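Objective 1.3, modelling of assemblies. Example input:
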Amino acid sequence: MMSKSKPDDRLIKLSLLMVALTAITVLAVITIFIFEQGLPIMLKYGLKNFLFGQDWYPSEKSFGLLPMIVGSLLVTLGALLIGVPLGLASAIFLTEFSSRRLSRFLKPVIELLAGIPSVVYGFLGLMFLVPFIRENLGGPGLSVLAASIILGIMILPTIISISIDSIRAVPDSYREGSIALGATKWQTVRMVVLPAARSGLVAGIILGMGRAIGETMAVIMVAGNAADLPASWLAPVRTLTSNIALEMAYASGEHRQALFATGVVLFVIIMILNFLANLAARKQSGR
Amino acid sequence: MSELVTSENIIEVRSLQVFYGLFQALKNVNIDIQARKITALIGPSGCGKSTFLRTLNRMNDLIEGSRTEGRVIFDGKNIFDGDTDLLELRRRIGMVFQRPNPFPLSIFDNVTYGLRVHGQTDRTLMEERLFHSLQAVNLWDEIKDRLEANALSLTGEQQQRLCIARVLALGPEVVLMDEPCSALDPTATAKIEDLMYQLKQKYTIIIVTHNMQQAARVSDYTGYFLLGELVEFGQTDQIFTSPRDRRTEDYITGRFG
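Predicted structure (C-alpha cells):
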C-alpha cells in the first residue's frame, strides 16, 4: 500500500492496447497467409472444380473437395443430432429439476470433459466404438457414425454449459408467473423458459457446431478418411480438417497449395458459423 | 360460487404459521376474507404480508425449506390437504406480481397461456376469453390491433394490466396482488386502482401494499402485519380512523415503518 508511485492509467491502457493488437495481428497474419497460399490455386483450377469436384487426386492435379466438404458437414450434422438433444436435456435437468447440490457438483464435472485431449476421445473411439459398430452394424467400423458419436460427446460440454448459463439467465419472475397460472414445472420450462432462452441456446449449439467442424485428431482416428463421398452412415469419410492434417507432412507444390485451399474453405465455413452465433447472441441482448 | 351473498367468507385462515427453516415468518394468523371485497394487507418490509399472500395459492411451496402449519379453508376445503389439486387451486386463486412479468411471447400467447396449460385447445373459446379479459382490464382498445406483438413491447402499466388479464382469462374467484403498483408511476397507479374497483364486482381481491394511502383508497378491509403477526384486522375506515391497537396507530400515523 505504500508504493511510491502509482502506475499511470495511460500507461496501463497503452500496454493493454499493445497486447490486444498483438492478438488481432496474429489473426490477421493467419488469415492473409491462408488466403495468399490457398486462393491462387483455387482461381487457377476454378472455384467450381474445388467446391464441386468429386475427385481428390493431388498427384494428377485433381483437387475436388466435395467429398471432404460433405464429410465435414455430415459428421457435424451427426454430432449435432447426438449432442444437441443430450446437451439440452442435461442442461434442463441441471437447471430446473435437479437439486442445487447435485447441479453444483455436476456442472464443473461436465466442464472437465472439455479439458480431455481430443486424442483421448479418438483413442477410446478406436478401441471401443469402432469395433462395436463393425461387429453390430457392419461396415469397416471407421465411419461417419463413429465420428458423429465421438464428436457428439465432445461438443456436450460446450452445449451444456452455455445452455445452463442461458437458462439461468431467464428471470425467475417468468417461472413464478407461469406456476401461479397453474402450469406444471415441465409446461413452464417448455412454454416459457426455453423460448425465453432461445437465442442463448442457439448460440451454444452453433459454438458446439464450430467445435465439431474444427475437430481433427479424434476424427482422423475413427472416421476412416477415405476421400470419397460416403455412401452411408457406416461408410468411411474424410473431413476438411483431416484432409489437411493427413497430407500436410508430405505435400509440396500445388498439392500443398490445395491443402491451403482446403483451409480457405474451412475458414469460410467457420466464419459463417461465427457470424450466425453473433447474430443469435445479439438478438438476445437486444431484447 | 357466484351465488354467495356479499358478506360470505370466501377464505378462512386459522392458526396459520409459516416457517422458513428456523425463522418463523407468520405467527398464528387468523383472518376471514370476504367475497367480492378488496382486502388490503399493510405493514413494514419483512412483516410477513407477502408470505401470507403467497401461502394462499401455495406459491410458498416453491421456496426451499418453507413449512406451513394451520389451515386455510377455501371453498370448504383446507388447501393444505394432501389431495389438493395445486394446478386447479392456482387457477381459482390467481396472482399478480410486484413487477409486471409478462412472458416474452406475443400478447395473445400471454393472455391465453393459462388456458393452454390447463389443456384448452379451442381457438374460438380462447379468442373469446382473450377479448373479455382484455376488455375487463381496459386494454382491448389499446392493443387489439397488435395481439401478435411481443408483450414486452408494452409500457409498464400496460404490462401490469396484461398480467391481470392473463389471470382473469382463467376465470378465477380470488385475485392476489403483491404490491401491483410499486413499479408504476402515480398516473399508472391510479389506473390500476380504478381497475381494481371495477373488478371487485366479480372477484375477491387481496392486495399487499406498502402504500397506506393506496390501502385507504381502494380497500374495504385492512389487515396490519408486524413481525409475522396480524396485529389488527377490520374495516378499512375503522383501521385508519380509530385503530384499536397502539402499534397500528403508530404505523399509520407514520411514527415508524
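The domain at 66-285 of chain A is CATH 1.10.3720.10 (MetI-like fold).
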